[in-house]
Write a structure and sequence with these properties.
The complex is a heterodimer of chains A (about 180) and B (about 700). By secondary structure, chain A is an alpha+beta fold. Chain A has one domain: Sandwich (Immunoglobulin-like). In chain A, strand 6 and strand 7 form a beta hairpin. Chain B folds into five domains: about 150 residues, no CATH class; about 150 residues, 2-Layer Sandwich (Beta-Lactamase); about 100 residues, Beta-Lactamase; about 70 residues; about 150 residues, Histidine kinase-like ATPase, C-terminal domain (Heat Shock Protein 90, 2-Layer Sandwich), CATH 3.30.565.10. A five-stranded antiparallel beta sheet of chain B has the order 2-1-5-4-3, sandwiched between helices. Chain B has a five-stranded antiparallel beta sheet with strand order 7-6-10-9-8. The chains are: A alpha+beta (about 180), B alpha+beta (about 700). At the A-B interface, helix 3 of A face helix 2, helix 4, strand 3, helix 7 and helix 8 of B.
């Protein structure tokens, strides 16, 4: 069910962009998901092809604005994804915790990486008639790079892969209505 | 400042230790390391500021020429050179060594070997896979000729033969038809939809599969196309584990290759990082050293500054300041010696001051003795220049001798005509004497008449204070009183001698008249009476004169009471109201009460007014002025007339008895006046007024009670 989505600028430039971000509803609750455009630059790609694993972090957050106090944090989640290349078998692999998946080509693996979705947000935690701020972000976690590589991270901008926070306003009521009409 | 430097030194040590220990592998690498680098950078900045501040301070000190600043500058330069030069040398060597050693990690041959190993592993795996693929395709070909129910047997057979480790046959939908394995596996890996699709279209699938928990396996799927019995297609799957040793070796090669590549990739960054660390460390250490150099130099300089300050204070005569001893080295010892010196100087100064005070008090005592001496004392040096003089000398000689210090005697004689005889006598007497002592009596003209001085001269013994001392006394008063006493004696005797025959003479004359007047005729009787009267009156006059004499000589005892002079004057003036000569009163004294004998004072006034009247006979517009004035506890009376005044010859002897200018007068008037005034503790003097006319000045001490 596609309920509310937004397009960001089409990007073939190097780096990470947000192509599409939306909030879905299922029977268990709401879910934030985003489609990123991930294009690794030469430096990162080379490092990957030499067998160095890259860790990406997908972050999701949902807040409600309060005029009388700090914004209320409704939901926050972080998911770490490991992207690696086996130089021996020449296969790319995506791992999320114990789960993993092998891919023969870089494009396939990047397409897989680009699709990120949050864990479930209980429906009870959101009020239907309120406005919420949703935000998504995908970035390369340079802190999990091998230690020696971190020297490069600090001396070069090539490793700064970050979509930045992408924010938009959602109203749970509209989400449901739209779902019904479709 | 001291604490600042200590703190920064401590911080430098901690930071450098952390930096060096952090270069080796630790978990908290990136965050803390760069945090540390940042901190070190901040510290370096702070130290730069500190050094800048110290430089500025030294500059200010140099500009204001603070003592010791130049030494501080030199010390700072030396210390800095000593710290900086070796530091830079070590730094250069370290940087060079660092880049060389990092470069030495990388070797083309090592890289080639690693790549070769990797390729070897790859090709070995590829070969195995190719072989298995061929095998699978071959078996698949064979299976087209077999009945589907014989598949299980065939697979078991294959396993038994050791052709492959695991074999399975699926139908096109992916359903398992037959399975055999040598490793007791119960179920094969079922291919997914995607895989089935690929096999159906391409006829085969071959891949090396690696899962984290299982060993690396070779997996091949081949299409058994158009079985001759069933006409159906099947999928044959062979799984073959890669030999353990091969897998381990390949893994090792891969890991080492990856590590090596990591290193290669981060080579530049590492070099930079180490370079930055080294540079920052050097900077911090050097800055700390320079800062410490400033501190130490300033300490050394400030000790000198304190000493200089002390010296200046001593130069200005301040011996009280004790400099604090800050160090136990020679500088401290020097400060201690300096303190000791100032202490001794202070003691010496105190002692000399004490001595000077004593000398001064002795001198003061001597001077006070000399001042209160009634005799005049003159001290002359060997060239007859005035050295010192006491108050009495100046009073006696009536000349400002105190202002003529170091003036030759002859010059004084030239300057003051009245002192000429005095000065000449001294020089002449010292010239004439043989043993250096002499005594003379001289007479000189002073402002108050002739003055008789008794002088004694002594030559001081040769030496530093060689010179002469002259001591003199005004003995005029002494002589005068002697003369007066003599006159009084003469007068008393004379009066006595004269008075004795006067009474018989008078009585005899009266008796003659009484007895003879009846016996004579009228003409003779008249003659007798005239003659007798003449005798009686002349005798009476003579008696009066003799009484005056006696009065003068005897001087009855004064009966002192409180007398108002002004009152007295008015009372006396009442008797002169009918007089031809007008008397002008000008009484200006605020108080006029004295202790005195009214009768005698009345006589004084009578005498003076009588004298003035006598002097004014024959003057066109006669006038007498009687004035009073209060001066310093004394009342000054002045009787002024506009007559001819005193002549020079009379002036000097005007107060002596029997000096008179009048045709009929005893010449005792002024002498008696003087006597009475002196008996009252007063002074009398006469002078000629500048407009002509005589002026008599009297001063009498006022009653002390009325003064208060």
């Amino acid at each position: 069910m596609l309920l509310a989505w937004l397009f960001a600028a089409p990007a073939w430039a190097e780096g990470i962009d947000v192509n599409k971000a939306e909030m879905r509803i299922s029977e268990e609750g709401y879910q934030l998901s985003a489609d990123f455009g991930v294009n690794l630059n030469y430096t990162v790609q080379q490092a990957l092809s030499l067998g160095i694993p890259l860790y990406f972090v997908g972050e999701f957050s949902l807040t409600r604005s309060r005029w009388y106090w700090l914004d209320e944090q409704i939901f926050q989640s972080e998911q770490s994804v490991k992207l690696s290349y086996n130089v021996l078998t020449r296969q790319y692999r995506i791992s999320r915790g114990a789960l993993f998946q092998n891919f023969a080509s870089l494009d396939e693996v990047l397409r897989m990486l680009a699709r990120q979705s949050s864990s479930l947000i209980p429906a009870a935690s959101m009020q239907k008639e309120a406005n919420y701020f949703a935000a998504v972000r995908l970035r390369l976690d340079t802190r999990q790079l091998p230690k020696l590589m971190q020297v490069n991270v600090l001396t070069s901008k090539d490793w700064d892969l970050d979509s930045g926070w992408y924010r938009w306003v959602v109203r749970p009521a509209e989400v449901r209505n739209a779902g019904k009409t479709e | 400042m001291k604490y600042l430097i200590s703190i920064s030194v401590l911080a430098v040590i901690v930071l450098l230790y952390l930096l060096s220990s952090n270069s080796v592998n630790t978990e908290v690498f990136s965050v803390s390391y760069y945090g540390l680098l940042g901190l070190t950078g901040l510290l370096a900045l702070g130290l730069t500021g500190l050094v800048g501040f110290q430089i500025w301070r030294l500059r200010v000190k140099l500009k204001s020429k603070v003592f010791g600043a130049k030494l501080t500058l030199r010390l700072v330069i030396f210390f800095t050179l000593i710290a900086v030069l070796p530091g830079i040398l070590v730094y250069a060597v370290s940087v060079n060594f660092l880049s060389k050693s990092i470069e030495s990690w990388f070797d083309v041959r090592v890289e080639k070997a690693l790549e070769g190993g990797l390729n070897l592993g790859r090709s070995s795996l590829d070969n195995s896979l190719k072989e298995l693929t061929k095998k699978t395709q071959f078996i698949a070909l064979l299976l087209t000729e077999k009945k589907p129910d014989q598949f299980q047997n065939s697979l078991t057979h294959l396993i038994d033969e050791g052709t492959v480790q695991e074999a399975a046959i699926f139908d096109p939908a992916g359903k398992l038809l037959a399975f055999a394995a040598s490793n007791n596996a119960l179920l094969p890996d079922v291919p997914g939809e995607k895989l089935l699709q690929q096999v159906r279209t391409k006829g085969k699938y071959s891949a090396i599969e690696s899962t984290p928990n299982k060993a690396m396996t070779l997996r091949v799927l081949a299409l058994v196309s158009a079985n001759s019995y069933s006409g159906q297609s099947y999928l044959l799957q062979f799984n073959q584990a890669v030999p353990k040793q091969v897998e381990i070796d390949a893994e090792t090669v891969q890991t080492v290759y990856r590590d090596y590549q990591e290193l290669t990739l981060s080579r530049l960054g590492l070099k930079r990082l180490y370079g930055i660390t080294l540079t920052l460390s050097l900077l911090v250490v050097l800055l700390t050293a320079i800062s410490a150099a400033f501190f130490i130099s300033e300490r050394l300089g400030s000790s000198l500054e304190a000493l200089a300050e002390g010296t200046r204070a001593v130069a200005q005569g301040d011996f009280t300041g004790q400099r604090p001893i800050r160090s136990s080295d020679e500088l401290g010892a020097l400060t201690g010696l300096f303190n000791q010196m100032t202490h001794q100087l202070a003691d010496a100064k105190r002692a000399s001051e004490q001595q000077q005070r004593e000398v001064e008090s002795a001198k003061g005592y001597l001077e006070s003795v000399l001042t209160h001496l009634s005799s005049g004392v003159l001290a002359l040096d060997s060239e007859f220049r005035l050295r010192s003089v006491n108050t009495s000398a100046a009073q006696i000689l009536d000349a400002p001798l105190h202002q003529m210090h170091r003036m030759p005697l002859l010059q004084i004689a030239d300057k003051f005509v009245l002192l000429t005889s005095f000065c000449l006598t001294i020089t002449e007497a010292f010239g004439a004497t043989g043993n250096g002592e002499w005594q003379r009596q001289i007479e000189r003209i002073s402002r108050n008449g002739t003055q008789i001085l008794l002088m004694r001269g002594t030559r001081l013994p040769h030496g530093a204070d060689a010179g002469y001392v002259v001591v003199f006394d005004d003995i005029s008063h002494l002589l005068k009183s002697e003369r007066q006493a003599a006159w009084g004696e003469v007068a008393r005797r004379l009066a006595h001698e004269i008075k004795n025959p006067l009474t018989p003479i008078q009585l005899s004359a009266e008796r003659l008249q009484y007895k003879l007047s009846a016996k004579l005729d009228e003409a003779d009787a008249r003659l007798l009476q005239r003659a007798t009267q003449t005798i009686v009156s002349q005798v009476a006059a003579m008696k009066n004169m003799v009484t005056d004499f006696a009065d003068y000589a005897r001087g009855p005892v004064l009966k002192l009471t409180r007398v108002d002079v002004h009152h007295l004057i008015r009372e006396v003036l009442g008797l002169y109201e009918a007089n031809a000569v007008p008397i002008t009163l000008d009484l200006r004294a605020g108080r006029a009460e004295i202790n005195g004998d009214a009768t005698r004072l009345r006589q004084v006034l009578h005498n003076l007014l009588q004298n003035a009247q006598d002097a004014l006979q024959g003057v066109a517009q006669p006038n007498i002025v009687l004035s009073s004035e209060k001066v310093d506890g004394e009342i000054h009376l002045r009787v002024l007339d506009n007559g001819a005044g005193f002549s020079e010859a009379v002036m000097s002897r005007v107060f002596e008895p029997y000096m008179t200018t009048k045709s009929k007068g005893t010449g005792l008037g002024l002498a008696i006046v003087k006597k009475i005034i002196e008996e009252h503790g007063g002074h009398i003097s006469v002078e000629n007024h500048m407009n002509g006319g005589a002026c008599v000045n009297i001063s009498l001490p006022l009653n002390e009670e009325s003064l208060g």
